[in-house]
Amino acid sequence: MADALSIPTGQPAAVPRPERVRRRAAANSTTRRGDLKAATIFLLPALVGFLVFYLWPTIRGVYLSFTDYSLLVEPEWVGTENYTRMLSDRVFWHSLLVTLEYVAINIGVQTIVAIVLAVLLHRLTSSSFLRGVILLPYLVANVVVALVWYAMADYNIGMINGVLGWFGVDPVAWFGDERLAIPTIALVNVWRHLGYTALLIFAGLQAIPKQMYEAAAVDGSGEWRSFWRITLPLLRPVLAMVLVLTVIGSFQIFDTIAVTTKGGPVNATRVIYYYIYDKAFTQYEFGYAATMGVFLIVVLAGISFLQLRLLRASESDLS
Amino acid sequence: MIADGAGRTPHRGRFRRMSPGRFLSWVVLWAFVLVTLFPFYWMLRTSLSNNRALFSDPASLLPVDFTWGGYRRVLGLSTAEEALAEGGSGASIKFWLYLRNSIIVATTITAGQVFFSAMAAYAFARLRWRGRDKVFFLFLTALMVPPIFIFLPNFELIKDLGLLNTFPGLVLPFFLMTPFAVFFLRQFFLNINREVEEAAMLDGAGHARIFFQLILPTSKAPMATLGILTFITAWNEYFWPLLVTDPTTDDARVLTVALGIFRSQTPQGSPDWAGLMAASLIAALPVIVLFALVGRRVVNSIQFTGVK
To answer: Does A51 lie at the interface with B, CB-CB under 8 angstroms?
Structure first.
């Protein structure tokens, strides 16, 4: 499902811890030689699901990217034609640019504000009620979130323009203005994802030993200084992980645009996801859509790799 | 200023030790809470307004010209004339049908995904077989592929199977597993005590009995958490249902897709905002209620997935 809830698995935790495996192997070797038969039965339904709905479509998608395919007749092999077409497709590059603008605003604002929120929660309260409230927008469908803000930012009846009117500001077409549409949508989704991001960071904060703050306080370090000298450096691995997750999620912006601007005005909000959707499901150019999908995979893998390298995610200062 | 005042009046116990910085921090935190909750209130306020009167006072904190009309229109309780009089489209909205569909789809996905993922997680966490860790790693790499990419061939498959506009078409890709669900449960299953399992084994219990009578009962809490997360994700899913259900037939249309269509049915360029907000609020309600009941569990699970 296209939701960030399903992303956090790409964690290092996925790699089995060697001691545990070894210990288990030792315990088992005396009683059983292997459970392949039982494992096959237990794994079968999930394996079928994986092969049919994950692995096969991925392989098929890569194949389709080298074909001309409209769903009606069999795919026709065209070599790298789709790829050369993509490189000279101005709408494609524009959609990539629009997506990058969205991601930059969305992730930039969201990360900074989420750090502030997480630190406030961490230093002020242990209330899980407050943490629950903060998470609430994340649990509501993208579609609902989009519609609420679409109503609040409406040109005529929206409360945002209504309030601005009190100060003599002319109404603003938040979703209808070519320059404002992407920042508006980016901020709407900051609202939805802020709590989730803050809670991920909050979990990282809880891993920092309290004694470090106490020691710093004894040495006369104030909250502000402790934040820059202790919190931020020690948070780096968690931040790297959070950034990878949220950036990947951010690139997949679709729902909000599909129910509000539908790519417009002109192409102002035609993000890459929406362009692929448009090509595949309104123009039935499945081959070309798959090509852009391959490109998207490469971009996301590259960005994740770079981020983890730059932020040296696996190294922790806490040892 | 207020913080100073509080500081100078030590007899007001709560504020005694509150420094100005700390007070300011609390103010900012409550501002966050306000911004978080305000749009929910605005949904309520707009849904109880008369759609025709909305533009006369867009910033009014209270419903404009209070009416239940929005809800009556959405739930099919008002006549076409009544609806038109309050700025509705007059077209009938089969809200109950979409609500039923959403419940069927989300419940089926949750039941299947949690159960089959638990079986797989058992094979990964408690059984020994060659290539286990390689297969598990392969499962996880599936998370790197953006959904839209695998949805293209999946759409093709569902179409070829003749399952467009059907519940199986909506449910199948999520029914048997998601990599996240398998990973989530595997983490818990790894920590179940080995000795109890071995004792059961010596008593002649097979894997099926161990799975159903030992593993599942001891993992009720993580299974419930996963169930909640899966239900919420399935309830909110928009993209896949949009692909496999047709705008012309609504037999299997779910709420999220219905909301999108409702929004684009705009008579004379002015949407039925009150009706739209009423529908949005009702669509969000199950998740909000579920969260109110078991919110703590969801909050904790996010910390689990994030850090462990």
So the answer is: no
